Amino acid sequence: MNPSALRGILALIGCCTIWGLSAIFYAELAVVPPLEVLCHRSLWSLVFFGVLLALQGRITEVKQALQGRRQIWLLLIASVLISGNWFGFIYSVANGYAVEASLGYYIFPLVAVMLGAVVLGERLGRLHLVAVALAAVAVATLGIGLGVAPWIAFWLAGTFSLYGLIKKQITLGPVVSVTAEVLLIAPFALGYLFLNGSADHSPYIWALLIVSGVLTGFPLFLFSYAAKRVTMGTFGVVQYLNPTLQFFVAALVLNEAVTLWHGVAFPMIWVALGLYSYAVYAQDRTSRRLASSAGTSGTIDTN
Asked: Which of 26, 156, 189, 228 has its CB 3.0 to 4.6 Å from that of 93, i.e. a possible disulfide?
Protein backbone atom coordinates (compact mmCIF):
# COMPACT_ATOMS: atom_id res chain seq x y z
CA MET A 1 0.00 0.00 0.00
CA ASN A 2 1.39 3.40 -0.95
CA PRO A 3 1.83 6.04 1.81
CA SER A 4 -0.85 8.32 0.36
CA ALA A 5 -3.49 5.58 0.46
CA LEU A 6 -2.45 4.63 4.00
CA ARG A 7 -2.82 8.24 5.17
CA GLY A 8 -6.23 8.34 3.50
CA ILE A 9 -7.38 5.20 5.32
CA LEU A 10 -6.13 6.56 8.65
CA ALA A 11 -7.96 9.84 8.02
CA LEU A 12 -11.16 7.94 7.19
CA ILE A 13 -10.83 5.82 10.34
CA GLY A 14 -10.28 8.98 12.37
CA CYS A 15 -13.32 10.63 10.82
CA CYS A 16 -15.61 7.65 11.43
CA THR A 17 -14.29 7.21 14.96
CA ILE A 18 -15.09 10.82 15.86
CA TRP A 19 -18.56 10.49 14.37
CA GLY A 20 -19.09 7.15 16.10
CA LEU A 21 -18.12 8.45 19.54
CA SER A 22 -19.86 11.81 19.19
CA ALA A 23 -22.94 10.58 21.08
CA ILE A 24 -20.86 10.73 24.26
CA PHE A 25 -20.22 14.41 23.57
CA TYR A 26 -23.83 15.30 22.76
CA ALA A 27 -25.08 13.40 25.80
CA GLU A 28 -23.26 16.03 27.88
CA LEU A 29 -25.36 18.68 26.13
CA ALA A 30 -28.67 16.96 26.90
CA VAL A 31 -29.49 19.77 29.36
CA VAL A 32 -29.68 22.20 26.43
CA PRO A 33 -32.73 22.04 24.08
CA PRO A 34 -31.75 20.14 20.89
CA LEU A 35 -32.73 23.02 18.60
CA GLU A 36 -30.48 25.38 20.55
CA VAL A 37 -27.61 22.89 20.32
CA LEU A 38 -28.21 22.65 16.56
CA CYS A 39 -28.03 26.44 16.18
CA HIS A 40 -24.78 26.63 18.11
CA ARG A 41 -23.38 23.68 16.16
CA SER A 42 -24.19 25.40 12.87
CA LEU A 43 -22.73 28.77 13.87
CA TRP A 44 -19.55 27.47 15.47
CA SER A 45 -18.94 25.10 12.57
CA LEU A 46 -19.23 28.13 10.28
CA VAL A 47 -16.47 29.77 12.32
CA PHE A 48 -14.35 26.61 12.02
CA PHE A 49 -14.84 26.32 8.26
CA GLY A 50 -14.22 30.04 7.77
CA VAL A 51 -10.90 29.88 9.63
CA LEU A 52 -9.89 26.70 7.78
CA LEU A 53 -10.62 28.16 4.35
CA ALA A 54 -8.95 31.45 5.28
CA LEU A 55 -5.78 29.60 6.29
CA GLN A 56 -5.89 27.76 2.96
CA GLY A 57 -6.45 31.01 1.07
CA ARG A 58 -9.78 29.70 -0.28
CA ILE A 59 -12.32 31.93 1.43
CA THR A 60 -13.25 33.57 -1.89
CA GLU A 61 -14.45 30.17 -3.12
CA VAL A 62 -17.44 30.47 -0.80
CA LYS A 63 -18.47 33.72 -2.45
CA GLN A 64 -18.06 32.11 -5.86
CA ALA A 65 -20.13 29.14 -4.67
CA LEU A 66 -23.07 31.40 -3.84
CA GLN A 67 -23.59 32.49 -7.42
CA GLY A 68 -26.35 31.37 -9.71
CA ARG A 69 -29.95 30.92 -8.65
CA ARG A 70 -29.96 27.16 -9.21
CA GLN A 71 -26.85 26.54 -7.14
CA ILE A 72 -28.07 28.76 -4.30
CA TRP A 73 -31.35 26.84 -4.19
CA LEU A 74 -29.51 23.51 -4.18
CA LEU A 75 -27.25 24.70 -1.36
CA LEU A 76 -30.25 25.96 0.60
CA ILE A 77 -32.05 22.62 0.23
CA ALA A 78 -28.85 20.83 1.25
CA SER A 79 -28.51 23.08 4.30
CA VAL A 80 -32.07 22.26 5.41
CA LEU A 81 -31.48 18.52 4.95
CA ILE A 82 -28.16 18.40 6.80
CA SER A 83 -29.57 20.59 9.58
CA GLY A 84 -32.50 18.18 9.87
CA ASN A 85 -30.07 15.28 10.05
CA TRP A 86 -27.94 16.96 12.71
CA PHE A 87 -31.06 17.81 14.72
CA GLY A 88 -32.31 14.22 14.50
CA PHE A 89 -29.05 12.89 15.90
CA ILE A 90 -28.86 15.50 18.68
CA TYR A 91 -32.50 14.80 19.60
CA SER A 92 -31.99 11.02 19.61
CA VAL A 93 -29.02 11.21 21.98
CA ALA A 94 -30.75 13.66 24.33
CA ASN A 95 -33.91 11.52 24.50
CA GLY A 96 -32.53 7.97 24.72
CA TYR A 97 -32.77 6.90 21.09
CA ALA A 98 -29.08 6.56 20.24
CA VAL A 99 -29.47 2.85 19.41
CA GLU A 100 -32.14 3.77 16.88
CA ALA A 101 -29.87 6.51 15.52
CA SER A 102 -27.16 3.94 14.87
CA LEU A 103 -29.73 1.89 12.95
CA GLY A 104 -30.42 4.94 10.79
CA TYR A 105 -26.79 5.29 9.81
CA TYR A 106 -26.53 1.55 9.19
CA ILE A 107 -29.41 1.56 6.71
CA PHE A 108 -28.46 4.90 5.12
CA PRO A 109 -26.30 3.37 2.33
CA LEU A 110 -29.10 0.99 1.40
CA VAL A 111 -31.70 3.77 1.38
CA ALA A 112 -29.29 5.82 -0.77
CA VAL A 113 -28.97 2.92 -3.22
CA MET A 114 -32.74 2.67 -3.59
CA LEU A 115 -33.05 6.43 -3.93
CA GLY A 116 -30.43 6.39 -6.68
CA ALA A 117 -32.34 3.66 -8.49
CA VAL A 118 -35.72 5.41 -8.23
CA VAL A 119 -34.63 9.01 -8.86
CA LEU A 120 -31.49 8.68 -10.98
CA GLY A 121 -32.30 5.43 -12.73
CA GLU A 122 -29.13 3.74 -11.46
CA ARG A 123 -29.08 0.01 -12.05
CA LEU A 124 -28.98 -2.29 -9.05
CA GLY A 125 -27.08 -5.55 -9.08
CA ARG A 126 -28.50 -8.74 -7.62
CA LEU A 127 -26.53 -8.40 -4.37
CA HIS A 128 -27.73 -4.82 -3.97
CA LEU A 129 -31.33 -5.97 -4.25
CA VAL A 130 -30.80 -8.84 -1.80
CA ALA A 131 -29.11 -6.48 0.68
CA VAL A 132 -31.92 -3.92 0.45
CA ALA A 133 -34.59 -6.62 0.81
CA LEU A 134 -32.86 -8.13 3.86
CA ALA A 135 -32.50 -4.70 5.47
CA ALA A 136 -36.20 -4.02 4.84
CA VAL A 137 -37.13 -7.30 6.54
CA ALA A 138 -34.85 -6.42 9.48
CA VAL A 139 -36.41 -2.99 9.96
CA ALA A 140 -39.93 -4.42 9.63
CA THR A 141 -39.08 -7.11 12.20
CA LEU A 142 -37.79 -4.49 14.62
CA GLY A 143 -40.86 -2.29 14.13
CA ILE A 144 -43.27 -5.17 14.67
CA GLY A 145 -41.33 -6.46 17.67
CA LEU A 146 -41.15 -3.08 19.41
CA GLY A 147 -44.67 -2.11 18.40
CA VAL A 148 -43.56 1.15 16.79
CA ALA A 149 -41.76 2.03 13.57
CA PRO A 150 -38.17 3.25 14.01
CA TRP A 151 -39.04 6.77 12.89
CA ILE A 152 -35.78 8.35 14.02
CA ALA A 153 -33.81 5.79 12.01
CA PHE A 154 -35.98 6.53 8.97
CA TRP A 155 -35.51 10.27 9.50
CA LEU A 156 -31.72 10.06 9.77
CA ALA A 157 -31.34 7.67 6.83
CA GLY A 158 -33.82 9.62 4.71
CA THR A 159 -32.43 13.11 5.32
CA PHE A 160 -28.84 11.95 4.79
CA SER A 161 -29.76 10.06 1.60
CA LEU A 162 -31.62 13.06 0.19
CA TYR A 163 -28.70 15.26 1.21
CA GLY A 164 -26.38 12.99 -0.77
CA LEU A 165 -28.72 13.16 -3.76
CA ILE A 166 -28.68 16.97 -3.70
CA LYS A 167 -24.89 17.01 -3.26
CA LYS A 168 -24.57 15.07 -6.51
CA GLN A 169 -25.98 18.14 -8.25
CA ILE A 170 -23.51 20.56 -6.60
CA THR A 171 -20.10 20.80 -8.27
CA LEU A 172 -18.21 21.99 -5.20
CA GLY A 173 -15.73 20.38 -2.84
CA PRO A 174 -17.18 19.17 0.48
CA VAL A 175 -15.61 21.85 2.71
CA VAL A 176 -16.62 24.77 0.49
CA SER A 177 -20.08 23.28 -0.02
CA VAL A 178 -20.78 22.75 3.69
CA THR A 179 -19.40 26.21 4.50
CA ALA A 180 -21.86 27.73 2.04
CA GLU A 181 -24.65 25.59 3.49
CA VAL A 182 -24.09 26.66 7.10
CA LEU A 183 -23.66 30.25 5.93
CA LEU A 184 -27.14 30.11 4.40
CA ILE A 185 -28.65 28.64 7.56
CA ALA A 186 -26.73 31.01 9.88
CA PRO A 187 -29.35 33.85 9.86
CA PHE A 188 -32.03 31.41 11.03
CA ALA A 189 -29.74 30.04 13.75
CA LEU A 190 -28.89 33.55 14.94
CA GLY A 191 -32.55 34.52 14.93
CA TYR A 192 -33.52 31.50 17.00
CA LEU A 193 -30.77 32.08 19.54
CA PHE A 194 -31.66 35.77 19.81
CA LEU A 195 -35.32 34.95 20.51
CA ASN A 196 -35.07 31.66 22.41
CA GLY A 197 -31.45 30.97 23.29
CA SER A 198 -30.13 31.05 26.82
CA ALA A 199 -27.05 32.95 28.00
CA ASP A 200 -27.14 31.35 31.44
CA HIS A 201 -25.19 28.21 30.59
CA SER A 202 -22.24 27.19 32.73
CA PRO A 203 -18.72 27.73 31.35
CA TYR A 204 -18.52 23.96 30.79
CA ILE A 205 -21.66 23.95 28.61
CA TRP A 206 -20.48 27.04 26.71
CA ALA A 207 -17.18 25.28 26.02
CA LEU A 208 -19.02 22.22 24.71
CA LEU A 209 -21.25 24.34 22.47
CA ILE A 210 -18.19 26.02 20.97
CA VAL A 211 -16.35 22.72 20.55
CA SER A 212 -19.40 21.32 18.71
CA GLY A 213 -18.26 23.42 15.74
CA VAL A 214 -14.87 21.73 15.72
CA LEU A 215 -16.50 18.34 16.22
CA THR A 216 -18.58 19.05 13.12
CA GLY A 217 -15.86 20.53 10.96
CA PHE A 218 -12.74 18.51 11.72
CA PRO A 219 -14.19 15.08 10.75
CA LEU A 220 -15.40 16.58 7.48
CA PHE A 221 -11.88 17.85 6.84
CA LEU A 222 -10.57 14.31 7.44
CA PHE A 223 -13.31 12.94 5.18
CA SER A 224 -12.33 15.35 2.41
CA TYR A 225 -8.66 14.38 2.80
CA ALA A 226 -9.48 10.67 2.67
CA ALA A 227 -11.82 11.03 -0.31
CA LYS A 228 -8.89 12.03 -2.53
CA ARG A 229 -6.86 8.97 -1.56
CA VAL A 230 -9.19 6.08 -0.78
CA THR A 231 -11.07 3.85 -3.19
CA MET A 232 -14.83 3.39 -3.13
CA GLY A 233 -14.44 -0.20 -1.92
CA THR A 234 -12.49 0.95 1.13
CA PHE A 235 -15.07 3.65 1.81
CA GLY A 236 -17.82 1.04 1.63
CA VAL A 237 -16.24 -1.00 4.42
CA VAL A 238 -14.67 1.58 6.75
CA GLN A 239 -17.75 3.84 6.88
CA TYR A 240 -19.59 1.24 8.98
CA LEU A 241 -17.19 1.94 11.82
CA ASN A 242 -19.35 5.01 12.55
CA PRO A 243 -22.72 3.31 13.27
CA THR A 244 -20.97 0.35 14.92
CA LEU A 245 -19.32 2.66 17.45
CA GLN A 246 -22.63 4.52 17.83
CA PHE A 247 -24.38 1.26 18.67
CA PHE A 248 -21.85 0.21 21.30
CA VAL A 249 -21.72 3.71 22.81
CA ALA A 250 -25.52 3.70 23.10
CA ALA A 251 -25.61 0.25 24.68
CA LEU A 252 -22.50 0.31 26.89
CA VAL A 253 -21.93 3.99 27.71
CA LEU A 254 -25.39 5.54 27.55
CA ASN A 255 -27.00 2.34 28.93
CA GLU A 256 -29.84 2.24 26.43
CA ALA A 257 -31.90 -0.93 26.26
CA VAL A 258 -31.01 -3.52 23.63
CA THR A 259 -33.94 -5.90 23.33
CA LEU A 260 -34.30 -9.35 21.83
CA TRP A 261 -35.79 -7.68 18.76
CA HIS A 262 -32.64 -5.59 18.36
CA GLY A 263 -30.70 -8.85 18.68
CA VAL A 264 -32.68 -10.26 15.75
CA ALA A 265 -32.78 -7.18 13.52
CA PHE A 266 -29.22 -5.87 13.84
CA PRO A 267 -27.47 -9.11 12.73
CA MET A 268 -29.74 -9.10 9.68
CA ILE A 269 -28.65 -5.51 8.99
CA TRP A 270 -25.00 -6.51 9.37
CA VAL A 271 -25.44 -9.37 6.88
CA ALA A 272 -27.17 -6.98 4.46
CA LEU A 273 -24.31 -4.52 4.79
CA GLY A 274 -21.80 -7.33 4.26
CA LEU A 275 -23.50 -8.21 0.98
CA TYR A 276 -23.69 -4.54 0.00
CA SER A 277 -20.01 -3.97 0.85
CA TYR A 278 -18.98 -6.98 -1.20
CA ALA A 279 -20.99 -5.65 -4.15
CA VAL A 280 -19.31 -2.24 -3.80
CA TYR A 281 -15.89 -3.89 -3.50
CA ALA A 282 -16.49 -5.99 -6.61
CA GLN A 283 -17.59 -2.94 -8.57
CA ASP A 284 -14.58 -1.02 -7.33
CA ARG A 285 -12.18 -3.77 -8.43
CA THR A 286 -13.76 -3.77 -11.87
CA SER A 287 -13.54 0.03 -12.09
CA ARG A 288 -9.89 0.04 -11.02
CA ARG A 289 -9.06 -2.68 -13.52
CA LEU A 290 -10.65 -0.64 -16.30
CA ALA A 291 -9.03 2.56 -15.05
CA SER A 292 -5.65 0.84 -14.87
CA SER A 293 -5.96 -0.33 -18.43
CA ALA A 294 -6.76 3.27 -19.42
CA GLY A 295 -3.84 4.63 -17.40
CA THR A 296 -5.99 6.46 -14.83
CA SER A 297 -6.38 6.31 -11.04
CA GLY A 298 -9.08 4.40 -9.14
CA THR A 299 -9.44 6.85 -6.27
CA ILE A 300 -12.31 9.18 -5.60
CA ASP A 301 -11.64 12.62 -7.01
CA THR A 302 -13.07 15.10 -4.53
CA ASN A 303 -11.80 18.60 -3.83
From this structure: 26
